[in-house]
Amino acid sequence: MRANTEFDIIVYGASGFTGRLVAEYLAGRYGVGGEVKWAMAGRSADKLAQVRDEIGAPKDVPLVVADADDPASLTAMVARTKAVLTTVGPYQLYGSALVAACAAAGTDYLDLCGEPAWMRQMIDAHDAEARRTGARIVFSCGFDSIPFELGAFFVEEIAKARLGAPVPRVKGRVRRMKGGFSGGTAASLQATMAAAAKDPSIIAYLTDPFSLANGFKGPAQPPGDKAEHDPDLDALVGPFVMATINTKNVHRANALLDHAWGQDFVYDEMVVIDPNAPPVGSLGGPNMPKPGEGPSKEERETGFFDVAFIGIAADGRQVRAGVTGDKDPGYGSTSKMISEAAICLVKDATEVRGGVWTPGAAMGNRLIKRLTDNAGLAFIDETA
Prior knowledge:
By secondary structure, this protein is an alpha/beta fold. It is 41% helix and 20% strand. The protein is globular, with a radius of gyration of 20 Å. The model has no long low-confidence stretch (mean pLDDT 93).
């Protein structure tokens, strides 16, 4: 992380739909020039000024012009801040130059990426440089994958406290959820599929649960590809579309934590099939918002998510946790999660070394506290 910079955080992509929500959250929660010094960045100063006025942010919110197609503008931007929070995706199309600029400059980087093949490419290309310069590169700071990675982390903390040791098996189960996935998530999936069609080697990154785990290959993992009865919930569960990226981030977190949960750790995610609950949508389709689009304020405000985590010891003893959010997952909660992750990284986790991290491995309980205090998430010990 850089020291003695003009800003703590620059929100890059602040004129887009999710970036706008991030800027609105920071303005409402932290004001301007106070505890958190932040700025809005994007391609057009006029558009940024328009968004600043529309969200009711103060006129003195600084505006920074930068463009993913102009490397010099990215270099100039990252030199002014401790961290860049970017909502400009798909990241495999628009993020590579920014990651490179941050890694070279020692500037922290946070995004909402759910694109595992690109993430692996960025790890291979920039982890060593980020370690050298002190840049902390943190992918997947939204609904994919903060509630799931931190949920696994939290239930393991419960296991250590209650059982005296971590557990080798954790289940993530989406109990209820209202609100869809973001248009950016759908666009990222489409870009990944297009890239895989051109380069079939990418498919291996998508199918291997350990593709982000620094070369570690652990035990066989549950496929989670068909409906089944879960005896631990006494419920029918089915495939969860975001498990593909979330499970990889959880296994990467375990690797970054020196396998604190064991080298035999098994983790999967599925969704509870409940005909009386709001359906968990799929990615894509004619009603999926496009990048830059999203739900109304009412839809964001009335959304929520509720995920259960079941930790199972080798002797069969269990611990349980719940992670909930008070806004729709793809936009309302995501914009708060990435904001608090950025603040936590530059304010609370200054000692964390440079390199490519997951949010939970880098910030752990400190991020849980910020999300609980500020972002409408709850982490609940549900062990009987």
